[in-house]
Amino acid sequence: MLAAQVLVNAAVLGCLYACIAIGFSLVWGVLNVINLIHGSLIVLGAYLAWGLYQWTGILPWYVLVLTAPLFFGIGYLLQRLLLNRVITAPVLVTLTLTFGLDLILNNAMIYFFKADYRKLTLVPSLGSLSIGGVVVPVDRVIATAFALVLTGLLYLLLRRSRVGRAVVAVRLDRDAAVLMGVDVKSIYAIAFGLGAALAGCAGVLMALIFPISPLTSSAYLGKAFVVCVLGGLGSVSGALAGGVALALVEGIGAVVVGPSYATTLSFLLLIAFLIVRPQGLLGRKGFE
Amino acid sequence: MIRPSIVLVALLAVIALLPLAGDAYALRLGTIACMYGIFALSWNIVGGFLGYPSFATAAFFGFGAYTTGVLMTLGASLPLALLATLVASLVGASVLGAVLLRLRGHYFAIASLSLVEVLREVVNNATDLTGGGMGLNIPLASNASILGDAIFYFYAMWIALALTAAMVVAVSASKLGFGLACIRQNETAANMVGLNTTLYKSIAFGLSACFVGVAGGIYAVWVHYIDPSDVFDILYSVKPIVMSLMGGLGSPVGVVCGALVYLGLEEVVWRNYIQIHSGLLGLLVVLLLLFLPHGLVSLRGRLFRRGTGHA
């Protein structure tokens, strides 16, 4: 029974992890930038959901409609105005720049929202499902479903739309994309905007499940990174595989060595993967 | 290399004269200046000479603080504890470097970043030895007066800084420094011509760790109380990068100047805007990268011929 519960937990958590990681993976794959502000954007999204529910009673999943364009705009402008200036610079520069931006956003959130942990508690509570002894809270199921929907939408966007194909083209071969008449600067901004939008939406979903505090942003960032490495960079299916793999390892690890070693465990896994299988579980070049 | 070394020695001598100013505040500031100097010089070995974006400084610092702290509570004397910390940091980081430095670019950056989190978690969990989240009280090393104490820790940190500077100058003048520059410029080619890149990188990582560890040890004894979230603060990893970017990557004199300028800025910000200090630090980083990517040195033309250092 314990095994079944661990598996179900891992599946649910894994989809959420994938949702956290997918925007990060997109930006990394297309722009070759490690976006350290990703974690703080997730937390900002969570605060948006929390605030709107507190003041107006709007349920978090409706907030997604507002979050996506808002965060897309934020990301688009960040890329256009700041990151674009250093996009060709060495790794250290782009990395440190996003770190600086993250410090600003995180400090602003601590300043305005305080560092207290808050929880979005739905009234009335949605309760939980119990199927054959395996218990899953309904709010988690809903969050997971929306995480899958978001992931699917991104997949469709990248596969079917003109802009999406251009994003994939830039990821595959930047120079060839330029020769085909793709405006790389605007594709970069769109990809970064999409990454930010996904971060914001992931944050809204996280608000349903986890406590909210600016201090949690680095944990989200760490998860996103591990998922990208495990699953392979730059593919939707890879992010899903990586998410479930991480959740599974964490779930089993929590049973075997205790939950307080979660970070150490995922770090060891990360190092092992980077050395043994650097392309990840489903690694391919190309965002498909 | 001769002229920058003279400048470096002069700079260190000026710092050493600080106790003449007398009061405990100047000494506290001086001690932190030496600590930041150690951070910047040490980071510069991996970040500047070798060109790997390392975020591991906080890991070394916390490791050193806890090694010294635990040894002192077990009854070791301060010099012995610091020596043990030096050796442990050197060996530990060299071994770790051989693994971590196989990763390049973003991967290495994030791996070194998560090293900090991992060590913090390990220290948090090893409650028997380290006190876990409750922190660790470190026995007083001397019974001198407040001012005497301040002078003692200032000179302890200053000596560590002088040793770091000597080590960095020695490295940059040696075959090791040349090898590191080769790896920075083209690692594959360096490997092809027979350079043992793994060995070089692992030594560089060890050297960049050992004095940061000692600085952590001195810091722990100086403040008498450490806890995981204090000494494994990720900002300790970021500060040396900012200092080096301010001073100019790859130049030992530049990064020490960067450390001093940074300390001055930080002191002003801390004193006046405590609630938003990390945001202002972020703003500083962003402005620096966008408008002054080659550091303050570039303001004065090319006064110092910097190493072509760029990570």
TrEMBL record, chain A:
GO MF entry, a single one: transmembrane transporter activity
Domain of life: Bacteria
GO cellular component labels: plasma membrane
Transmembrane segments: 6-26, 33-53, 59-78, 90-113, 133-158, 187-212, 224-249, 256-276
A Pfam family: BPD_transp_2
Cellular compartment(s): Cell membrane
Oxidoreductase is among the record's keywords: no
Protein's UniProt keywords contain Lipid metabolism: no
Keywords: Amino-acid transport, Cell membrane, Membrane, Transmembrane, Transmembrane helix, Transport
Family to which the UniProt record says this protein belongs: Belongs to the binding-protein-dependent transport system permease family. LivHM subfamily.
Protein name per the record: Branched-chain amino acid transport system permease protein
Automatic annotation (TrEMBL), chain B:
Name of one Pfam family that matches: BPD_transp_2
GO cellular component, one term: plasma membrane
Keywords: Cell membrane, Membrane, Transmembrane, Transmembrane helix
Transmembrane helix recorded as keyword: yes
CDD domains reported in the protein's UniProt record: TM_PBP1_LivM_like
GO molecular function: branched-chain amino acid transmembrane transporter activity
Membrane-spanning parts: 36-66, 78-101, 152-178, 199-222, 242-265, 277-296
Membrane topology, from the record: Multi-pass membrane protein
Subcellular localization(s) per the UniProt record: Cell membrane
Keyword Transmembrane helix: yes
The name this protein goes by in its record: Branched-chain amino acid transport system permease protein
Organism phylogeny: Bacteria, Pseudomonadati, Pseudomonadota, Alphaproteobacteria, Hyphomicrobiales
